UniProtKB/TrEMBL annotation:
Designated name of the protein: Myb/SANT-like domain-containing protein
Polar residues: compositionally biased ranges: 168-180, 189-199
Pfam hit, one: Myb_DNA-bind_3
Bias type Low complexity, positions: 200-214
Coiled coil: none
Organismal lineage: Eukaryota, Viridiplantae, Streptophyta, Embryophyta, Tracheophyta
Start and end residues of each stretch annotated as Disordered: 168-214
Domain Myb/SANT-like stretches: 11-113
Length: 214
């Protein structure tokens, strides 16, 4: 079971996050709650809560605020990757996606230019995001049309909600493993099973992540 800290703040486990993403992919595949412009329509949170309850009966996750706020956090980080890879980040180009390492790729020259500009995008060079492709399948149309369903204020608040998010989901990779290959195309890969723990989530210190296989 996840821990609750500082009032209503809830620390999600790697297993819960993996299960949530898999349930989202499953619900999107069924198509019963899909939005007309990507994403989901009203009522999907309750359905996700039911699915989560069946898979993790002791998690006690509610549609609001637990699942709703967690999706905001996951989506906020995904948007940073998506915008960079799809030319939505001003004055930045030359990026690709490695579906194996789950990392953004670019030439050394591109990364060096970013480092000189002191852009925060440079931090993504060593960060993998295990659920990027799953969220692309669900939200890419939504994001492309600009109908994100999230206000900037909401995203800032959610970023502050869980400061441990980066260590749990965005794996820091050392320089020797950073790919310098640019302009790889994004590859849609099927979601993993609930029994698979994403590599980046192995950094989580929660007890529920012990014993999980990569």
């Amino acid at each position: 079971m996840a821990h609750v800290a500082k009032g209503t703040r809830r620390k999600w486990t790697a297993q819960e996050d993996q299960t949530l993403v898999n349930c989202m992919v499953e619900l999107h595949t069924h198509g019963t709650h899909n939005g007309k412009k990507g994403g989901f329509e009203a009522g999907y949170l309750s359905e996700l809560a039911k699915m989560m309850s069946q898979k993790l009966p002791h998690s006690h996750l509610e549609a609001k605020p637990h699942i709703e706020s967690r999706i905001r956090t996951l989506k906020q980080v995904w948007q940073e990757y998506y915008d960079l890879l799809n030319g939505r980040t001003a004055s930045l180009s030359g990026f690709g996606w490695d579906p194996i390492s789950k990392m953004i790729t670019a030439s050394n020259e591109v990364w060096e230019a970013i480092a000189e500009s002191k852009s925060k995008v440079g931090a993504l060079r060593r960060k993998s995001l295990w659920y990027y492709e799953q969220f692309c399948a669900i939200y890419s149309v939504d994001r492309a049309t600009g109908a994100t369903g999230m206000e900037c204020e909401d995203m800032v608040q959610e970023s502050e909600f869980d400061p441990a998010f980066e260590s749990q989901h965005m794996q820091d990779v050392n320089d020797s493993s950073v790919s310098g290959v640019a302009n790889k195309k994004t590859s849609k890969r099927p979601a993993t099973s609930d029994n698979d723990t994403p590599q980046s989530s192995l950094n989580s210190s929660t007890s529920n992540s012990r014993g999980k296989k990569k």
